[in-house]
Amino acid sequence: MEAIILQILNGLDKGSAYALIALGLTLIFGTLGVVNFAHGALFMIGAFCAVVMQRLLGLSYEQVDPTKTDFLGNPLKVQVPYVESWFGPEIGGAIVDWSVPLAIVLAIPVMVILGFVMERGLIKHFYKRPHADQILVTFGLAIVLQEVIKYFFGANPIQSGAPAALSGSFDFGAMLGFDPNVVIYPFWRLVYFLFSLVIIAGVFAFLQFTTFGMVVRAGMADRETVGLLGIDIDRRFTIMFGLAAAVAGLAGVMYTPILAPNYHMGMDFLVLSFVVVVVGGMGSLPGAVAAGFLLGILQSFASMNEVKSIIPGIDQVIIYLVAIVILLTRPRGLMGRKGVMED
């Protein structure tokens, strides 16, 4: 039982990332009908927003510290972050320590603007083109963005730690009545899971309970009729593209303490997340979220040594095997809508 609980918990953080990326992919496909293979690059750029924020808050200047001396007794020069000189050592140090969550403030406008530029500058020209053309152009855009990040930040992963208060582990087993130190779960992974639930709930609430969201859902069902009512549905869909980009970026920001940002992380998550979208059902937001968590947990169980000793390499292909089985039995996916990508 302890092993089962631990694997479920281990699958939640990766499943959360899959669900958030798949949610953004489905938002774009459901509103614009575009298969966006650059969406993984948006996840990567969000992660590097956290890196940029960390570096900005870490900017410092030299100052002589009379309390520290070298072997000759001369005072040493130390690096003092500007935020500490502005807000004091305690508040300034806390700001630097919480640079990853604070990167959300930077990531939201950056990702929304980037989403607008991508949609208006490139993707709008491919609305009526075949899906194969959309895949090729967005995949090419993803490669360009990947190489830009590689040029400015290098090829090596960049470590971005969680805040000190959330860098420890939580004894989940003791809370459930098991022996202490049996089911240990890192605090930040729990934070990421809860954060993903908040974002997912926020997106669904926005679409379900706001006038803007209701118009968007109507446009997803019948774009031409909504346009005939005098509503500028194209502008609303552009805003939804920016929202989808922001969701992917926020997923990347908060994932940086779990996986050090690198220039190819977007591609690593994109293929798996696209499989998640197909399994959940193209155009189905609940299906994308459900499939993301389901496949993340299955991948966690497949990575157990006991399982890999029986079927070596199963953790690398389990998602694809599940996708094959589901699509053979349910060609539209778990919650796919009739007529989506069936023409």
TrEMBL record:
Keywords: Amino-acid transport, Cell membrane, Membrane, Transmembrane, Transmembrane helix, Transport
Signal peptide start-end: none
Subcellular location: Cell membrane
A GO MF term: transmembrane transporter activity
Membrane topology, from the record: Multi-pass membrane protein
GO CC terms, sorted: plasma membrane
Keyword check for Transport: yes
Transmembrane segments: 16-35, 42-61, 102-123, 190-216, 237-258, 270-298, 310-329
Chief localization: membrane
Domain of life: Bacteria
Pfam families the UniProt entry points to: BPD_transp_2 (PF02653)
GO process annotations (BP): amino acid transport
Family affiliation: Belongs to the binding-protein-dependent transport system permease family. LivHM subfamily.
Name assigned to this protein: Amino acid/amide ABC transporter membrane protein 1 (HAAT family)
Organism, as annotated: Rhodovulum euryhalinum
